């Protein structure tokens, strides 16, 4: 049996007021979703020095920047998490390792590339129609920051009906962003499973593929 691709998974921070604790935290659905995609999740602490060592010891085949929480630029983000994610993104770009940024993860991809996020309306909803290269799909959505355009380095492959950018792909690197939460949809969408499996498994040769190719 071939080993499943190793996917480094970043975590959000949850602050517990009663005990004054900062906890790294991950929705358990991420684990079941990634296993369903035949991927091996490796959950990362928000500590860059450790993540550097992990990369040396067992370099990943893909990187997942999970969502939840805000970016530091909005004033209440988690600095340690963002340091880890910035480091992973620099490393992934250098070695052309596939990356998927989910919601806040995609926002990080965009802001690192010079995009200004703006407040967007109607993007907190259990179901939302998005247009993926000409066809409608139904997803969920949970964000207040977004854009109607993206930088020239990225290609937009999904938008909401009102024109909010929902899916991006880097023009040269296998770096993808989505503005919905595959792990929070029950049952998991087949399209999301295909996308994750294709990006992280079929592209182990580290080429870039389009989402449409993945969904075929
Ligand atoms: N769902 C998320 O990842 C949250 C993103 C960010 N907090 C926003 O509201 O835009």
From TrEMBL:
Coiled-coil stretches: none
Sequence ranges assigned to domain Glutamine amidotransferase in this UniProt record: 34-185
Family matches, as InterPro entries: Class_I_gatase-like, GATASE
Pfam families, A to Z: GATase (PF00117)
PROSITE patterns: GATASE_TYPE_1
Keywords: ATP-binding, GMP biosynthesis, Ligase, Nucleotide-binding, Purine biosynthesis
Protein name per the record: Glutamine amidotransferase
Organism classification: Bacteria, Bacillati, Bacillota, Bacilli, Bacillales
């Amino acid at each position: 049996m071939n080993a499943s691709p190793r996917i480094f998974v970043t975590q959000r921070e949850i602050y517990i007021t009663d005990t004054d604790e900062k906890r790294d935290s991950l929705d358990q659905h991420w684990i079941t979703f990634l296993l369903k995609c035949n991927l091996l999740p490796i959950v990362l602490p928000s500590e860059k020095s450790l993540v550097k060592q992990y990369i040396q010891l067992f370099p990943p085949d893909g990187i997942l920047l999970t969502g939840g929480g805000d970016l530091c630029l909005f004033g209440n983000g988690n600095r340690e998490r963002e340091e880890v994610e910035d480091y992973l993104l620099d490393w992934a770009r250098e070695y052309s390792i596939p990356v998927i940024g989910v919601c806040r993860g995609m926002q990080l991809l965009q802001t690192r590339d010079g995009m200004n996020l703006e407040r967007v309306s109607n993007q907190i909803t259990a179901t939302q129609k998005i247009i993926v290269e000409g066809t409608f799909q139904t997803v969920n959505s949970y964000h207040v920051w977004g854009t109607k355009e993206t930088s020239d380095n990225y290609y937009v492959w999904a938008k909401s009906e009102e024109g909010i950018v929902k899916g991006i792909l880097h023009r040269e690197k296998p770096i993808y962003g989505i503005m919905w939460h595959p792990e929070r949809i029950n049952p998991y969408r087949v399209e999301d499973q295909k996308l994750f499996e294709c990006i992280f498994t079929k592209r182990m040769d580290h080429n870039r593929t389009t989402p449409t190719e993945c969904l075929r």
